What we know:
Strand order of the largest sheet: 2-1-5-3-4
Number of domains: 2
Order of helices and strands: EEHEEEHHHH
Helix content: 25-40%
CATH superfamily of the largest domain: [2Fe-2S]-binding domain
Low-confidence stretches: none
Radius of gyration: 16 Å
Number of helices: 5
Shape: globular
Number of strands: 5
CATH architecture of the largest domain: Orthogonal Bundle
Strand content: 5-15%
Structural class: alpha+beta
Amino acid sequence: MKINLTINGKEKEIEIAPDDYLSEVLRREGLLGVKKGCDTESCGLCTVHLDDVAVLSCGTLAAKAHGKAITTIEGVEKKAEKIRYELGKRGVDQCGYCAPGTIMSILYLEKVVKDPTEEDINRYLKGNFCRCSGYVGQLEAIKSYLEGQKHEVCE
Length: 155
């Protein structure tokens, strides 16, 4: 079956099987920033935005994305670089494998919660925290990024 998607601003018609998951389809399209981890919606590695809502693409049937807009890490490079900088500054972006999903969750949090608290950050990134590094440093990096974004908007 064929579905129509807008991926990172580009319209595409893609052939899929009825049981294909969105993560598989996006990776076949060359979007390798959509990582594969648990395939059970537990780790957050595959987080993408589907019509501006963060979803775990390993548990989303591709057919349900028909006619919708998808944003992957490849579609938010400038913002992603700012977050990577904050993570790197604290030495908490060790292997980088979890970074794309984490960044997509941070960007969703930033969009839906005005002035997020530490509790908000922990809730929205519950499944995304890096297993290689310390949670404290990662939390500090996220707070610093969000604070910097507030100042950028004000300037």
